[in-house]
């Protein structure tokens, strides 16, 4: 039960991050012409695979990921990398 609740929280957090990235990338003009938000919204198909211990992604998730333009992806990654400092938190180091 605790694991399923944790997975639900992780999935909800991943969804929130996607929404923030979509709005921020659009504000920075990452996709141009309103393209970035719909591209990032397609990543909702990947939300089940965002948590620890998740299985492999579905074909729908992989298709959504492959359809994101480089500009939109780079803007989203840039926003994600800048969030900790904007929230007065330490940078995340995954190495």
From TrEMBL:
Residues 1-27 form the signal peptide. Pfam families: Tryp_alpha_amyl. InterPro entries: Bifun_inhib/LTP/seed_sf, Bifunc_inhib/LTP/seed_store. It comes from Oryza brachyantha. Keywords: Signal. Coiled coil: none annotated. It comes from the Eukaryota. PANTHER family: NON-SPECIFIC LIPID-TRANSFER PROTEIN C4, PROTEIN YY1. Residues 36-94 form the Bifunctional inhibitor/plant lipid transfer protein/seed storage helical domain. This is Bifunctional inhibitor/plant lipid transfer protein/seed storage helical domain-containing protein. The lineage of its organism: Eukaryota, Viridiplantae, Streptophyta, Embryophyta, Tracheophyta.
């Amino acid at each position: 039960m605790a694991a399923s609740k944790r997975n639900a929280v992780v999935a909800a957090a991943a969804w929130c991050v996607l929404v923030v990235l979509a709005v921020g990338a659009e504000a920075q003009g990452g996709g141009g012409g309103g393209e970035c938000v719909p591209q990032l919204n397609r990543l909702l198909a990947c939300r089940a695979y965002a948590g620890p211990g998740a299985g492999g992604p579905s074909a729908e998730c992989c298709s959504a990921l492959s359809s994101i333009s480089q500009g939109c992806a780079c803007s989203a990654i840039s926003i994600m990398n800048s969030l900790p400092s904007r929230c007065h938190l330490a940078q995340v180091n995954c190495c």
